[in-house]
From TrEMBL:
Protein name per Swiss-Prot or TrEMBL: Signal peptidase I
GO cellular component: plasma membrane
Locations listed in the record: Cell membrane; Membrane
Lineage: Bacteria, Bacillati, Bacillota, Bacilli, Bacillales
Residue positions of the active site: S40, K80
Alphabetized Pfam families for the sequence: Peptidase_S26 (PF10502)
CDD domains named among the record's database cross-references: S26_SPase_I
Organism whose genome encodes this protein: Terrihalobacillus insolitus
């Protein structure tokens, strides 16, 4: 082999090595993917969709109401929407959501999902915790019925983008 060919191989190996390191850093610290399992976030997210989530955002900021988050639990990860923030009081009466006694409009939900929420509360969210619900309120396992309050360190990222199927490419709301 000529020295030109050897140099070309070395350049290719360097480029591949850098690409692998960069991909590792991006996947470990910035972005990752997850598959939506079940119908608890329907119609926003559907069963089988692959989503891209931002792992970095909550290292520099706090979750906001309405964020769709990835919750990491020992046996399973969950995709849910943040409804109430630390130390807020939440209740639902006749399908209407109240946060700190004020009615909150859930523009991301269809009317039938709002009516299937059921009455509960008032409940005060503890410090460093969040109250989450799925958008498909009638069937969602969430803070109301099994997941309980979500600690900040259990939230591993914010859903940013649907990446599969391709015809569903969209920013999540």
């Amino acid at each position: 082999m000529s020295s030109h060919t050897n140099s070309e191989w070395i350049d290719w190996l360097k480029a591949i090595f850098i690409a692998i390191i960069l991909a590792f850093i991006l996947r470990t610290f910035l972005f990752s993917t997850s598959i939506v399992l079940g119908e608890s976030m329907y119609p926003t997210l559907e069963d089988g969709e692959r989503i891209l989530f931002n792992k970095f955002v909550y290292l520099v900021d706090e979750p906001n109401r309405g964020d769709i988050v990835i919750i990491q639990r020992p046996n399973k990860n969950y995709v849910k929407r943040v409804i109430a923030l630390p130390e807020e009081t939440i209740s639902v009466k006749d399908g209407a959501l109240y946060i700190n006694g004020e009615k909150y409009t859930q523009s991301f939900l269809e009317k039938q999902a709002i009516m299937r929420t059921g009455n509960f509360g008032p409940i005060t969210v503890p410090p460093n915790s969040y109250f989450v619900m799925g958008d498909n309120r009638g069937i969602s396992r969430d803070s109301r019925n099994g997941l309980g309050f979500i600690y900040k360190d259990e939230i591993v990222g914010r859903t940013e983008f649907i990446i599969y199927p391709i015809d569903e490419w969209d920013r999540t709301k």
